[in-house]
Amino acid sequence: MSHNSFGHLFRVTTWGESHGPAIGCVVDGTPPGTILSREMIQRFLDERRPGQSRYTTQRQEPDEVAILSGTMPGEREGELVATGTPIALEIRNVDQRSKDYSEIARRYRPGHADITYDMKYGVRDFRGGGRSSARETATRVAAGAIARQVVSGLLVRGALVRIGDMEIDRNRFDWDETRRNPFFCPDAQMAERWAELLDGVRKRGSSIGAVVEVEAVGVPAGLGAPLYGKLDADIAANLMSINAVKGVEIGDGFAAAALSGEENADEIRIGANGRPEFLSNHAGGILGGIATGQPVVARFAVKPTSSILTPRRSVDADGLEVDVMTKGRHDPCVGIRAVPIGEAMVACAIADHYLRHRGQTGRV
Fold it and tell me: Full-prediction pTM beyond 0.85?
């Protein structure tokens, strides 16, 4: 199986399966001298870690990261300095229950990658989905933690803005609120309504979709390149590579189709610092594939988890028509834990373009 890497100068290769002994990644391209720490990487992994509330899978994984190469001790306690060589990270799997999947060993879950993996490779790992499992995304979160350290002053933060047909009120948007509830929700009132909604979804053994919004602040103007190295194109590709993601938009995205040219144009004036200043940000911080210096804003839609208790019609590997019901531990809304994953993938794209821009122009 190929295509397990993404990025150019900041390049990430992930490895491992959901029910194997471990998962991990190799991060290549981190500039020598970049300051890291295991605790910093662990902090982001803890945000994605399963089993932290009744609204996510109850699989109990500590997701403790081990740094195997690419760093040396720094001057301060716990500080690590990147040497410029590949940084290898490992996360052990400790709570696999492969027997939960024995009944679907030869059956294809509707809406899942089971059938397409078998069509392409002639073999699939039915134990939790193998490489198609969201378990793999823990390694991306670890890589994203390193990416954040590559670009000085970069802040990447995400929020869940919609579950099912229930969307937040933008007038109540509060970034601080995203760390006060189990949904990464920036609207305290909507978080309470989502709790009621997901309790019902969970008790039915069903699932529901969601929309995640990611904002990157401190992105240097000039990152990205026309025509085939656009920053927004690479962000979109990174986000689309996340399990269960079915749509991505930058800035106003699809809503821009309903605007007039006058409404959509981000007008410009000279700011107090003597530099151009945009009066709005419909473009999401990117024009012509190049960062404007404004916050980069991206959203992505996550479909409902395919593993549900309600029987669905399907076929098996022998060509027989069957009904499929998936047992085991699954997220009623995978969009919740997709928030730190989306942050990581945006951070990786920006770090990659930061290094590419520096290499081409000699400045950032």
Answer: yes
